[in-house]
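Fold Annotation — chain and its backbone
Encoding — discrete vocabulary of local shapes
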Amino acid sequence: MAAARVEVQDLFDAYLWIGVGVAAIVYGAVAFALLRYRRKPGREPSRKSEAMRTELTYAGVLVLIIAGLVTATFTVEDRVDAVSGDPALRVDVTAFQWGWTWRYPDGLTVTGNSENPPTFAVPADRTIQFTLTSRDVIHAFWVPEQRFKRDAFPDRTTTFDLDFGDTGMNGGVCAEFCGLRHAQMSFNVLALSEPDFRSWLADRGARP
């Protein structure tokens, strides 16, 4: 599965360039009409006239563009929402006011709060499957660098996959207002090579 950030970035680029193209055509047509048909001494400005074929063609092109963007959006959402049957790692994530707890399969638990934001580790370039829930109110698991956000609800679990790509640090925050310390409810995800990830687990007393 391609990384979510790649899927979403490609879709965003499509929206951007189509928007730029449509804007250029519209502003160009308006500028042409203002200059070409403006009122001059001895000539009255042009008046409204019917051009059904042109108008229908324009409307048809807009419908095709919209249909294409809607189709592309739902296709990308389906791919991003798909979960693997054999991920490299499964992690349970619990959000709470105002912090996060990650539970790894071997029993390791890492928790942090607004005063001491947690740092979690995952293997780089691997599919990580998360099961997300909330202990109290609605929160949101947002990793801006990965172009990914998913809400965390109390009494409900949500499963999703992420691939953090190359080694390095990814910052994350809660993106759903959840109380007075919402702005400080952050976390870090450290993507490590396989040997470094095993060492990270071992250093915390977990089975590598």
Summary: The two ends are 25 Å apart (CA to CA). The mean pLDDT is 84. The longest strand covers residues 89-96. The domain at 89-203 is CATH 2.60.40.420 (Immunoglobulin-like).
